[in-house]
Amino acid sequence: MESEVLIEARALTRRYGPTLAVDGLHLTLRKGEILGLLGPNGAGKSTTMKMLTGNLAPSAGEVLIGGKSLREDAKAAKRALGYLPEQPPVYGELTVDEYLDYCASLHGIARKSRPEAVASAKRDCGLADVSRRLIGNLSKGYQQRVGLAQAIIHRPPVIILDEPTVGLDPIQIREIRALIAALGRNHSVILSSHILPEIQAVCSRVMIINRGRAVYNEPVTAVKSAAFGAIAAVFRQLPDARTLETLAGVRRVLALGEGRYRIEVDGSADPREAIAGAAVEGGWGLLELRAEAQTLEEIFVELTSRDAALAEAA
Ligand SMILES: Nc1ncnc2c1ncn2[C@@H]1O[C@H](COP(=O)(O)OP(=O)(O)OP(=O)(O)O)[C@@H](O)[C@H]1O
């Protein structure tokens, strides 16, 4: 059985004047998932996250949190969310304790419950030893921990993290990734990044966003487990992508337009001969059949550069 849907975005769209930053994006986050939004700079990740967290109104489409519309019941919906924006909203002149107490009050946590809320967020984010330090004097890595602590202080089921490791040194990056993975045991997470290994290290599912649209949405295990990944095929006339899905070893077929298909394979299967045979038999005009190594990097480059080429051609 599939787990509970916590966030659902339907046809989410945002324009900034003439710029279409997010273009009809559909997104689902289920309980227990760590979903990585991966995309080049300017792809629309931050805009998507601002809309998912109710910090920016969509031009069209809607966001449902726990089945409730973010537009119609913003207060209840936002209670279920913790958000760490790209610029962490931390105040350098406050101590960690003062700041987290303030965040707890903003979330409506009763005064008597705040010390426990602060202590537990500090525990989860490894901040217990810096309670009385001024945030402005902490390293960037620790400031980011404080940013994570404010996102979880009200124990939301979902946390949304925009580029959580940007600007950190390699050791801090490892620590924050490990922290996010640990937080992912009790929270469902959406995080954005343009760093591929980060997504592979931390996330259970990856959505590649390019020019405001989702061009890939798969479990990370699908990327890791494939032996040679996928097959790129071009046919002059394939009656229907589903005919390929009936062949042994074929897991899924994505139609990419203009006769191009991405054929994902099961485990170590190699259905190329079967595809060629079926193509000859069916008269599909097989023009190309190529095994693709399926690292996330290759998928990313292929999907984002093909999109750019199509846009240029248009
Ligand atoms: N306030 C704004 N006004 C006008 N255009 C904007 C605004 N914010 C973002 N954009 C544009 O919208 C598009 C998507 O931007 P967005 O910041 O969502 O992308 P991103 O994937 O988060 O990129 P980055 O990784 O660089 O933060 C870009 O073309 C950007 O220039």
What does the secondary structure layout of this molecule look like, with pairings?
Blueprint: E1 5-16, E2 19-30, E3 34-38, H1 45-52, E4 60-65, E5 68-69, H2 74-79, E6 81-84, H3 96-106, H4 114-124, H5 140-152, E7 158-162, H6 170-183, E8 188-193, H7 196-202, E9 205-210, E10 213-219, H8 220-225, E11 230-235, H9 242-245, E12 250-257, E13 260-265, H10 272-282, E14 286-292, H11 296-313
Parallel strand pairs: 3-8, 3-9, 6-7, 7-8
Antiparallel strand pairs: 1-2, 1-4, 4-5, 9-10, 11-13, 11-14, 12-13
The site of adenosine-5'-triphosphate has 12 residues, from β2 and α1.
List keywords for this structure.
314 residues; alpha/beta; Rossmann fold; Alpha-Beta Plaits; six-stranded mixed β-sheet; four-stranded antiparallel β-sheet; 11 helices; 14 strands; nucleotide-binding
